[in-house]
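Tutorial handout. Part one gives the primary structure; part two gives the three-dimensional structure as tokens.
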Amino acid sequence: MSKKTKAICLNNFSSTATLANNEVSVPLGSQDTLNEKDYDPYEHRNVLHPNTYFGALVHLLKCSLGAGILAIPRAFKASGLAVGVIGTIFIGILCTYTIHILMVASLKMCKLTKKPALDFSETIFEIVKHGPKGCRKYARSANVAQVAKWCISLAVFFTFMLMFYVPIDITWRKISGHISEKRHNLSQFSLRTGIVIFATCIAIFAGEHLGPLIELVGAIFLSTLGLMVPAIMDTLINWDNLGCFYWKFWKNLVISIFGLFGAVAGSYYAILSMVNEES
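Part two.
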């Protein structure tokens, strides 16, 4: 028995394009959903410059570690050697896990909506759109998660070099279409130079407050984007299948509470350090 296949033209195909003809609106976990094996998003992605395994690993380390690694001495100074080592390992494992569940959620939504790839805001939009009925009306407003990109860019602007390619990539995509191809190289050099000068000026003007400033940015963005958002999205995407005794819900609730505590406590002590140094 032969299977019929449909050919899809990938010429000029955007990896984040909406395949309107294939779009569905069914609750997650329902038995009536599309068979996820019928669509493999990896087979429909048109990547001009794909990464090698080593390149992907380097990008992962660069994005995960970031400039926050420069603040580790301050963290060890405040916590002590024993607590610092154990805490670093624990936070590393926790952040890796939350990124993992976010990637799994994005892959599920790619299969469900038959889209080759979804970025951060699109993943959240689709999860809320196909999630519990009470959440679906907020799908459009969930697209406000696009602000996360701006927040990430802002956070990276305050760091130097280690995550430098992230804001460049985001910014260049927005402005490259308005610049002649002959001037692309010069424009990129100018943009990179300008951002370096900007970041350096921030460090100069921050002065002795640079340490608390890094702590404040890390406390807010790591806790929200790194812990709370992935946990909430994992809860929504598994709303109809939370497991025995709703263990997935309780697990994500603990992660969210931990992230909220980290955001509040970290922000409080970072601001307190700024005030004490000022006085």
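Part three, for discussion. The chain has one domain: 51-278. Residues 51-278 form one domain.
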